[in-house]
Amino acid sequence: MVSLYRGTFSIVDLRAFAHNLRVMANRVHPETKLLVTVKANAYGHGVAPILEVLAESNVAAVGVASLEEALQVRQCGYAKPVLVLGSVGAQELPIAARHQIHVTYTDAWGDIDALPVMGSEPLHVHTALDTGMNRLGFKSIEHARVVLNQILNRSDMTWSGVSTHLACSDGPSDQHAAEQIRRFADMISQLRALGYDVPTVHASNSGGVLRNGQWHFDMVRIGIAAYGYSPDESVLPMPELRPVMHMYSSITRIADVLPGETIGYGATFTATQPMRVATVAAGYADGYPRVLSNSGKVLVHGQIVPVVGRICMDQLMIDVSNVSTVRVGDFVTLFGRAAPAAWTPEKWHRKPPEDRREWLEKSFESDSHGEQNVLSLSDVASLAMTIPYEMVCQINSRVPKLYVNEPNS
Ligand SMILES: Cc1ncc(COP(=O)(O)O)c(C=O)c1O
């Protein structure tokens, strides 16, 4: 067991992740395959434990951003298909083939006839069609045909998928995405009419899955919904999804502040009345955005209280003037469920550091009140002028992750 000394950590709820997979599987046709994106360390949740859940689920494949991430997935022992959604360099393609990693064609490959010969395993290639994102893929059938013919000519390559990516699947209107899907379906029909035996067709991200059942094709690629969030709560509310990550820190000091005193770097907050201010052991070096200076909110003793002053690298200050019960050592929720009542400063101090992790995990698992009292990540992200995707990705390795509700425990 790794010791816990600082009371700042995140909880990753693997049962919630498995639940979200089922919710999303129920939204698609039983024949439609599910690919889950685990890039960026599984959106910051830790790729190894997330892969363990995926390996046991009926998810068909995972998606990553780079060859490095794909190899990491294989090192974790994940045996099902892995697709690199970003670019893999020409010289690295034999490595992908050797590890049966599917890749997406990009112009960076240059002349396909001049690419290195793969080993005993063929290279699985997905070709993207650019239907309106202007990021990857062929804009015309003519271009697609030239490359496809070269790919099909090579005995060491297999054409395994054809994709597009939706730019606005979670936008206020579905017009842009609908137009992309129309173009995509049209290009697929043209390829079929030209005699191509089109392999797995995939287009929808979480937003596309939630928005329209006609957009699912043979496979969907979901990310954020699996981790518990709608891509945009205001457009596609998904109350049945359960947030997988919850972040906590603890209070290290409580002080009275008099009118006229300032708080934090730059003296950006001046007290206009007597206040009680608590210091919390988390800052921007943990991935808590500095932009939440004077605008963030945290949850303590069931109350939402404001961040005051600038977020420091390792600490932040909150106004607890209206929380009479608050004490040094109390846990605060930076986002997610309220800290379980069992997490008291006395218990934390009594536990040897090497036992704290298990104690926190077990008490989180048995806590039934936290779910009713939540500081939604979507709300915190919008205060930070960002999206839950970025928030969870940037909670970094300095913050220990505690895994709860593991499938085989
Ligand atoms: C190509 C591709 N497909 C699917 C996804 C998953 O998107 P989301 O997390 O919105 O479901 C991503 C994520 O950015 C992506 O880049």
UniProtKB/TrEMBL annotation:
Q: Pathway listed for it?
A: Amino-acid biosynthesis; D-alanine biosynthesis; D-alanine from L-alanine: step 1/1
Using the record's annotations, give every residue carrying the modification N6-(pyridoxal phosphate)lysine. K39
Q: Which GO terms describe its molecular function?
A: alanine racemase activity
Which positions are catalytic residues? K39, Y265
Catalyzed chemical reaction(s): L-alanine = D-alanine
**Pfam hit, one:** Ala_racemase_C
Q: Which HAMAP family match?
A: Ala_racemase
Superkingdom is Bacteria
Protein name per Swiss-Prot or TrEMBL: Alanine racemase
Q: Which class of enzymes does this protein belong to?
A: isomerase
Q: Which residues form the signal peptide?
A: none
Looking at the record, the residues that make up the Alanine racemase C-terminal domain are: 244-404
Family per similarity comment: Belongs to the alanine racemase family.
Task: Describe the function of this protein.
Answer: Catalyzes the interconversion of L-alanine and D-alanine. May also act on other amino acids.
Cofactors (names)? pyridoxal 5'-phosphate
Q: Which PROSITE patterns match?
A: ALANINE_RACEMASE
Positions that bind substrate:
R135, M313
* Entry's EC annotation: 5.1.1.1
Q: Could you tell me the keywords of this UniProt record?
A: Isomerase, Pyridoxal phosphate
In terms of CDD domains, this protein maps to: PLPDE_III_AR
